[in-house]
Amino acid sequence: MSFTRDAVSTDGAPKAIGPYSQAIKANGFVFISGQVAFDPATGTLIAGGIEQQTEQVLKNLSAILQAAGSSWEKVVKTTVFLKNMAEFGQMNEVYGKVCKGAPPARSTVEVARLPRDVSVEIEVIALA
Predict the structure, then answer these.
(1) What is the CATH number of domain 5-127?
(2) What are the C-alpha distances in Å from 71 to residues 46, 59, 64, 76, 114?
(3) Which helix (H) or strand (E) holds 52?
(4) H-type helices in the chain, by residue range?
(5) CA 47 to chain centroid
(6) pTM for the full predicted model
């Protein structure tokens, strides 16, 4: 039995800051590592609150999906990590602008802390 497994990388999203890939394309799926609201050009956290951070996260994910030959229409599952569940409504409103129609399955969890104290991180599984 053979399988494929290729790393996906793009300058349109922040570089990996550890021993992981932006995404892995494997056997018809794309597994995208959690993305946070870093500007890919500067590597710094963008200014603003949960809405602005969610917008940047979704832009970063879009760039990786495109680099992998996929799109939001092919996303089957997302996981959203929030620093504060009280900001769920604001995150959900921004998220809903990208994930519409038949939105993917999703889990949203509140976590004690995220990298560099960001407010939101989102990971994605999509069809290639």
Answers:
(1) 3.30.1330.40
(2) 24, 12, 9, 11, 26
(3) helix 50-67
(4) 50-67, 88-98
(5) 18
(6) 0.96
